[in-house]
Write a structure and sequence with these properties.
The protein is mainly α. The protein contains 17 helices and no strands. The protein is about 60% helix and about 0% strand. The longest helix is centred in the middle third of the chain and has 25 residues.
Length: about 325
């Protein structure tokens, strides 16, 4: 018996009846011979980890733009935290941990430089609009592997596309990632905001800390424990109304006291002007983009420019802006 077949049988013995079986929703755009060692979802996880877009996330903003402190989260460390939380919940609920991990690792592959500000500006500039979840799907279906994409399974592509809070994942594993994303970013953004001096824990309403916990670890434990308790044996993954309300109240607090604060907004406006300048430049000079992005110019030059800018890291975007718009000192001296 192949290792993959043995794994499938072991999973069936422990999976909840609501879990996504290893052989469900495994359709790919192009058929592939089964791997003798790995299930389809394990194979998807590995393809995501080894792709270029995954590596670039280490230099993309999560909350604070180009921080100098090495301990601030990046898009990559955020992704790892979502994966860890998701695997914990999936295992506790006897769901498909491999599928959960694959969705979690791929959910932000299409995210822009400079965090959600980059997403907002590309959405405004692109005639067809822009969302990071749809761009993540585009990365795995079109942009990676020299235009061949990663050829992922239907379940993983669905989970990536539907991971935002307004989405409707087709699997419980997708629902797990959607909640895990929220749990991760609300809590680690508090941690980073305190580190940055933008927030003091004493500013958080005491009632929220009483309900959710006074430390980073306590809050994550409380939210995960609540999800498991509320979802055990149920056809959906959710929080209890009390903890959900407290979590959303904490999220609203973060928007008011961190994400929309003047000090944060000032840095975002700088990045906004940078992306606007780059978008306009490459729209007028598409031949200056790497050839791999010009291969998809049949979708429109605007789409090709969005693909290129969305794939940039923070540092690379700054470098290209300086290269294009900032005079070189040695040239000025003649």
């Amino acid at each position: 018996m192949l290792v993959r077949e043995r794994t499938v049988l072991q999973h069936r013995a422990i999976f909840s009846r609501y879990a996504c079986d290893d052989e469900r929703m495994t359709e790919r755009a192009r058929p592939m011979e089964p791997c003798p060692l790995r299930t389809d979802f394990q194979r998807d996880r590995d393809r995501i980890i080894h792709c270029k877009a995954f590596r670039r996330m280490k230099h993309k903003t999560q909350c604070f733009i180009t921080p100098e402190d090495d301990h601030f989260r990046t898009r990559l460390t955020h992704t790892m935290e979502v994966s860890q939380i998701g695997r914990t919940i999936a295992r506790a609920l006897s769901l498909n941990e491999d599928l959960t991990e694959a969705i979690a690792l791929g959910h932000d592959l299409g995210h822009t430089p400079f965090g959600h500000m980059g997403e907002r500006i590309l959405n405004r500039l692109s005639p067809g609009g822009f969302t990071h979840e749809q761009q993540s799907v585009r990365v795995v279906e079109v942009l990676e592997n020299d235009g061949a994409g990663l050829n992922l399974t239907q379940a993983v592509r669905d989970g990536i596309a539907q991971h935002p809070s307004h989405g409707h994942p087709a699997t419980l594993e997708g629902e797990v990632v959607s909640l895990s994303d929220r749990i991760a970013y609300i809590n680690h953004d508090i941690d980073d905001a305190v580190r940055a001096g933008v927030l003091h824990l004493e500013e958080i309403p005491p009632a929220l800390l009483d309900r959710l916990g006074r430390t980073h670890g306590d809050r994550i434990d409380a939210m995960i424990g609540d999800v498991v308790a509320a979802s055990e044996g149920q056809p959906h993954v959710r929080m209890t109304p009390e903890i959900y309300a407290a979590t959303m109240e904490l999220r609203a607090f973060m928007f008011q006291h961190v994400y929309l604060r003047d000090v944060v907004q000032r840095e975002e406006r700088k990045a906004e002007r940078m992306l606007e300048g780059l978008f306009d430049y490459y729209l007028k000079n598409p031949e200056q983009m790497p050839e791999e992005y010009l291969l998809h110019a049949h979708s429109g030059v605007e789409q090709a420019v969005c693909d290129y800018l969305a794939g940039m890291t923070d540092n690379y975007a700054v470098h290209k802006f300086a290269e294009i718009f900032i005079p070189k000192h040695e040239v000025l001296l003649g």
